């Protein structure tokens, strides 16, 4: 993830309609969770659920940050999420802790994750996505992204 600058609270409130990039990432997270839930192999379920959570986190970053000029060392999306959205800090810590397990599952290591760990992560990723969506306003039905978004003129 490239460099991004958090926008102080009050300077850039979340728009009533999601920016297109954030909406697309949340849509990808939903599709990934559906794929994860249907995956018969627990390694695939775990890895796909973790990536879905990562896409939801990226959606928050897309809505709450602006790119910074200059070159900076890439940072973990989970680290950035904790800085940009402190209210999601515990979630960020939780999913960051599972990154190595996801990598092992993606590598196909036979004992990378158990059935229960995979099922638990699918459930946890769903919960995380629901929390993220609640930050953007209530979504009572599955979202139909991308939603139209009009960028307000700069003043």
Q: What is this structure, in a nutshell?
A:
This protein is mostly helical.
Describe this structure as you would to a colleague.
The longest helix is centred in the middle third of the chain and has 23 residues, at 42-64. The chain is mainly alpha-helical and 155 residues long. Helices cover 57% and strands 4% of the residues. A two-stranded antiparallel sheet has the order 1-2. Helix 2 (42-64) runs parallel beside helix 6 (115-135). It has helices at 20-38, 42-64, 77-84, 89-97, 99-106, 115-135; strands spanning 4-6, 65-67. The protein has a domain at 18-64 and 76-135.
Strand order of the largest sheet: 1-2
Fraction of helical residues: 55-70%
Shape verdict: globular
Number of strands: 2
Task: Give the overall average pLDDT.
Answer: 81
Secondary-structure element order, as H and E?
Answer: EHHEHHHH
Mind telling me the C-alpha Rg? 16 Å
Number of helices: 6
Separation, N- and C-terminal Cα atoms:
29 Å
Q: Low-confidence segments, ≥5 residues, pLDDT <50?
A: 9-15, 138-155
Assembly annotation: single chain
Strand content: under 5%
**Largest sheet geometry:** 2 strands, antiparallel
Structural class: mainly alpha
């Amino acid at each position: 993830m490239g460099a991004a600058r958090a926008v102080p609270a009050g300077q850039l409130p979340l728009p009533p309609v999601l920016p297109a990039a954030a909406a697309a990432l949340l849509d990808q997270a939903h599709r990934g969770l559906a794929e994860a839930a249907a995956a018969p192999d627990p390694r695939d379920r775990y890895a796909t659920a973790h990536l879905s959570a990562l896409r939801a986190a990226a959606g928050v970053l897309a809505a709450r940050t602006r790119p910074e000029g200059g070159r900076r060392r890439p940072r973990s999306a989970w680290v950035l999420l904790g800085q940009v959205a402190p209210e999601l800090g515990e979630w960020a810590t939780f999913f960051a802790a599972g990154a190595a397990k996801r990598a092992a599952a993606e590598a196909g290591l036979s004992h990378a994750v158990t059935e229960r760990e995979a099922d638990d992560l699918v459930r946890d990723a769903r919960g995380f996505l629901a929390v993220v969506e609640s930050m953007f306003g209530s979504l009572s039905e599955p979202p139909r992204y991308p939603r139209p978004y009009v960028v307000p003129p700069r003043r």
